[in-house]
Amino acid sequence: MALKIAVVTGANRGLGFGLVSNLASKLDGLGKWECNYDIVFACVRNMSKCEDLESLKKESKSDIRIVQMDVSKQDSVKRGCDEIKAQVSHIDMLINNAGILPQLLSENRGTIDDYTKSESDIINYDHFAEAYKVNAIAPVYVIRQLVPLIRAGQGKRIVNVTSVWGVISSPWSQSAVGALDYKMSKAALNMATMSIALDLKKDNIMVIAYNPGWVVSSRDVKEKTEPASGMSIYLGARKLLQVADYVNVEEHSGRWINHRFLDQDDPEYKKLLEF
Fold first, then answer.
1. Alpha helices, H only, 168-255
2. Which residues lie below 8 Å from residue 113, measured CB to CB, with a gap of 6+?
3. Strand ranges (DSSP E) for the chain?
4. Among 4, 43, 181, 205, whose Cα sits 20 to 30 Å from the Cα of 60?
């Protein structure tokens, strides 16, 4: 039987760490592509900040392989993908999780007024370009590098982690002020997902843009209980993987899918928003 292999970017913390933990879990009674992976490539920007991943690697029965990959730099992505391609001949699941919300790094809210107050290094063309590089261009480049391995796998699944703020018709994006660069870059990722899905439909590869909702990434990875508001990284990861297991090429590929897609008791049960 072929090994089950997954790749996760942005894997050293938050949702990415939760995804690696869930993919490497040995559990019965779940969907084929939700867990029990033999090899999980955990791609990280900074190899010196992987203490939690190293601990998980030691404890796990799966083979967790940490790969240096700074998605803001094309040469780093290329080296990381080459490292993966040198070790395995197929991939079943690729999750493009790495992303940035630039406003978290400054006091700037990202409104149009903020962007016209100053020409500082924070609010200029480079500021927007960084959001696009990480949130929109990098996932496309990772897919381009790894698609031969995805074609060779049985899972044939690509999940691009996006945001409700990247959907123009969403009431959440219509009412949320600021974060122009983030919203625009996630809208670009949504369009890339649709286009790539069309390209890869002939190969029976399923590509979705998935909105994980509010995942509380700042909590300690050892905290397994659910927060008062939002979701833990582990619940957020489980919901993503449940959806990734459920969807199929004909009905869902190329679509934007909400984290409540499979919640039967939720009023948005199986609600699927198109671009």
1. 171-175, 180-200, 233-246, 249-252
2. none
3. 5-9, 39-44, 63-68, 93-96, 157-161, 206-211, 256-258, 272-273
4. 205
Contact indicator for 126, 211 with CB cutoff of 8 Å: no
Q: Are strands 256-258 and 272-273 parallel, antiparallel or unpaired?
A: antiparallel
Mean pLDDT across the stretch 157-185? 77
SS3 198: helix
Encode pLDDT of 228-260 as tens digits: 778 899 999 999 999 999 999 999 999 999 888
CB within 8 A of 173, min separation 6: which ones? Answer: 164, 165, 166, 167, 183
Residue whose token pair is 């730099």: 73
Q: What is the pTM of this model?
A: 0.89
In a 10 Å sphere around its CB, with 0-12 CB exposed, 13-18 middle and 19+ buried, how is residue 255 labelled? buried
| Angle formed by the axes of helices 125-132 and 180-200, nearest 10° | 40
